[in-house]
Design a protein that fits this description.
The chain is α+β, with helices and mostly antiparallel strands. The chain has a single domain, classed as Glutathione S-transferase Yfyf (Class Pi), Chain A, domain 2 (Up-down Bundle). The chain is built from nine helices and four strands, in the order βαβββαααααααα. A four-stranded mixed β-sheet has the order 2-1-3-4, covered by helices on one side. Helix 1 packs across helix 9 and helix 6 packs parallel to helix 8. It starts with a strand and ends with a helix. 36% of the residues are buried.
Length: 235
């Protein structure tokens, strides 16, 4: 049996972190049964990072490593027949999302204009979390942002990076279907993990404004959200 450990859900998505939501969506798309446990403290996770899974006693971290393990072991039909070029595109998108992650996270924990509304939403949906827990997470993230570099940017400069990333995604995602054709694949789950955490985020940011202006990103996001929701209800 597989257990997915990831951050708490927020704003109607199963995980308020893009990496955990990517794995969640992939498991739903693949039709692989699993249980989902939410954590805020990642100290016991591999390398101190969420998400991770425990699969028949084996602990595996890192979203891409998790998906590669599950694909090898359970052999779902996801990503069947990808060309080498399409596989390269998947890797390029994954690396681009690594950059978008920092800007998206910055918009929540660092941008003081968004912080009050974000923390109020967290308290509303997760009342068991203490004020001390949330402030500790804010301080921890501030340190991460500083050492990664995004924390040294003014908000407008930080958002400019994320908008460049979203512009690439808007050019890649088609008006109909999915990135590599009529069937969703791993790359679609990855994009959904991040775009959903912008689009369903109930606070106006430059990132959300960009998504709102691009119907193809909204359509793609809601299509993946519907797949995950329907398959979740059927499980």
């Amino acid at each position: 049996m597989i257990t997915l450990y990831s951050y708490p859900g927020l704003f109607g998505v199963a995980d308020n972190n893009g990496y955990g939501l990517k794995v969640y969506a992939w498991l739903k798309l693949a039709g692989i049964a699993f249980t989902h446990q939410h954590l805020l403290d990642a100290s016991a996770a591999p390398r101190g990072q969420l998400p991770y899974i425990v699969d028949d006693g084996e602990t595996i971290g890192d979203s891409d490593t998790i998906i590669a393990h599950l694909a090898r072991k359970y052999r779902p039909a996801v990503d069947e027949g990808l060309t080498p070029s399409e596989s390269d595109t998947n890797l390029l998108v994954s690396r681009l999302l690594d950059d978008l992650y920092w800007v998206m996270s910055y918009s929540r924990w660092k941008d003081e204009r968004c912080w009050p509304a974000f923390i109020a939403a967290f308290r509303r949906e997760h009342p068991a979390l203490s004020e001390a827990d949330l402030l500790k997470a804010k301080e921890f993230n501030a340190q991460r942002y500083h050492f990664q570099g995004i924390g040294r940017f003014a908000p407008e400069a930080a958002y400019a990076r994320g908008l460049d990333d979203l512009r690439v995604l808007a050019n890649l995602v088609p008006a109909d279907g999915f990135v590599h054709g009529p069937k969703a694949g791993s790359v679609d789950c990855a994009i959904y993990g991040f775009v959903a955490n912008i689009w369903f985020y109930d606070i106006d940011t430059p990132l959300k404004q960009f998504v709102a202006a691009h119907g193809n990103l909204i359509r793609h996001c809601t299509a993946l959200h519907a797949i995950a929701t329907v398959r979740s209800e059927q499980a």
